[in-house]
Predict the structure.
Amino acid sequence: MSAKSLKQGDAFLQCQGCKKILFRVDFEQNLHVCGYCNHHHRIPALTRMRWTFDEDSFEELDTDLRSLDTLKFPEYAEKLVAAEEKTRMHDSIVSGRAKLDDMPVSVAVADFSFMGGSMGSVAGEKITRTLERAAQQRIPAIIFCASGGARMQEGILSLMQMAKTSAAVQQCREVGVPYICVFTDPTMAGVLASYASIADVIVAEPKSLVGFAGARVAKQAGVGKVPDDFQTAEFVFKHGMIDAIVPRKEMRATLTSLVKTLGGHLFLSLGSVVKEKMA
């Protein structure tokens, strides 16, 4: 969750993890991570872009996509309008091209503040295009997840995105382009069960919620007692699903190192050749 603003000119915030009072200046300098309990608060997609990739290198694409209320789901149209007004975004994913240490990458970042980061037809299409762009231009793909899962208001259309995005991952594999996925809080349900969990490398921010069915659903299903750290990044890391847990302050350096290790610097020249052939 995002830190809660307090009064007194918003100079103070309350950590949503340990509930301690934080100085806003210290909190922002620490990239919205609590200095007491290391709780990583949720951040907007564009803020994450700015903190992760080279300065002014992000070029947003796919901005013309809009979700439709095809199923005429009750109150969906109103919720879409409210989410757009609240976030000034048109859906839960921001996608495009950026650079990491001058290496071009195809990127997509989820924003939980837009309808819980849910994956509808537009979010699925943006993820698919991000992966297809990486395959076509021979550049690495990096996707940040922050989602409660598929968007129930789009029914089967949202579930179809699971297969579509997974097929796009296969396109990257067929041409040897690396795909890195970053789990942030939360990475759940249909997103986890599709493109998120089949990346070449998976890293996660500390204490991120990671799982398929939420605690309420598990309780309704009669699931027995689970470990205290169940469905956290640390729990799934211990069980081999995540390759590394990376603090937010180390994320840019880690991704840069991964892209170089996986041959990202080689894609600079290869990508240029492909672009020339496509021109």
The chain is about 40% helix and 20% strand.
